[in-house]
Amino acid sequence: MEPGKIEIIPQPIGDGFTTLQDRIMRDIVRRLKINAGEITRSADWQINRLQQLGMSKQEVKAAIQQALGVSDAAIDKIYSDAIKEEYARNADLYKASGKEFIPFSENKELQDLISSIAAQTKGELINITGSLGFVTQEGGKLKALDLTEYYTKTLDSAINDIMSGSFDYNTVLKRVTNDMTNSGLRMIDYESGYHNRVDVAARRAVMTGFNQTMSQINEKTAKDLGTDYFEVTYHYGARPEHQTWQGRVYSKQQLIEICGLGSGAGLKGWNCYHDYLPFVPGASVRTYTGEQLETMMKEENTPKTYQGKEYTAYEAKQRQRQLETTMRAQRQKISLLEEGGADPNDIIDAKSKYRVTSQEYTGLSKAMGIPQQRERVMIAG
Questions:
Q1: H-type alpha helices, 165-277
Q2: What does the pLDDT read at residue 112?
């Protein structure tokens, strides 16, 4: 499976959690706008405060349930469709090896495996939604706040600043919007202090389950075919540490020793889009020869220049990801400023910054000859 196709697999889940993030941010801005416009004394805010926060809790709960409902259906489809398609590719290898191939519809063991890992992934998403919050800077240090605490502190501070005359509404709106988009809705582990953007955590959970399933299928297939050898896939723009072993054939032990299978930094580890496929000597043919791999690696690692900077293929793809993250945050900021009725000049300024980033993204992608992935940028349609 091509890396671009693999990257798309968790996209529906990531989109659902990005929409959840957007709804929560909009809810905070909407309540800020309503109360800043209607409440004239801080005492009035205190009277309405508990009711407002209670309503927010209900809306957030409903948004989470909707995100999880959409995710459940998407996970079932992802695992059944994508894995069924990849599993079917093994049919020719079974035939060439004189072994019986069991169609997916009749393979109860594989169906049970998919159901088990899909259930595991759904449970992981529930855990993610149970620890949502934002990360803010206080006294130069990062502090993680759960949703209830963040709502309370953010709205209290905003309303009090406006009512005291310390800041006008537009200034407070920009501050709150900046804080939220800089952090993004996060999954927070309060014991370890670890935190990550919720859409990233959701996509990672899906890819972990998918990789676990594919690894078990590959190893079961190799056992069926009586081989201990695997071909590691090759993909454009791999990180330098993975370039040395991609595209080659190894024994299972060598996958562990050379490719780092089972470790976070190795094959099938963090953000790794490589796979290892059963290889039967005499029946299988390598996708690329050693000479072809060397030529491709030399081309990838020869820097190309864009706007005065040099990029290898890997560096260009990393810059792409950075620009996509920046554009998502900029789009969120525009959306929240519009929701809050910000000064039109501030909205124009935010849109101008987005256009500049978007132009760099398009120019870099064309100059480096790598496809754009605009679907990673869009939020809420």
A1: 169-183, 198-225, 240-243, 252-257
A2: 92
Q: pLDDT tens-digit profile of 113-123?
A: 999 999 999 99
Angle CA 241–209–6, to nearest 5: 55
Domain boundaries, the chain: 1-220, 227-301, 302-381
The candidate with the shortest Cα–Cα distance to 259, out of 215, 313, 320, is 215
DSSP string of 78-104?
Answer: HHHHHHHHHHHTTHHHHHHTT-----G
The angle formed by the CA atoms of residues 19, 21 and 26, to the nearest 5 degrees, is 95
Question: By C-alpha distance, which of 233, 240, 236 is closest to 255?
Answer: 233
Q: Which residues pair with 305 in a beta bridge?
A: 310
Return the exposure string of 342-374: e unless at least 16 CB atoms fall within 10 Å of the residue's CB, then b.
beeebbeebbeebeebbebbeebbeebebebbe
pTM above 0.70, yes or no: yes
Q: How do residues 291-311 score in pLDDT, each as one tens digit? A: 999 999 999 999 999 999 999
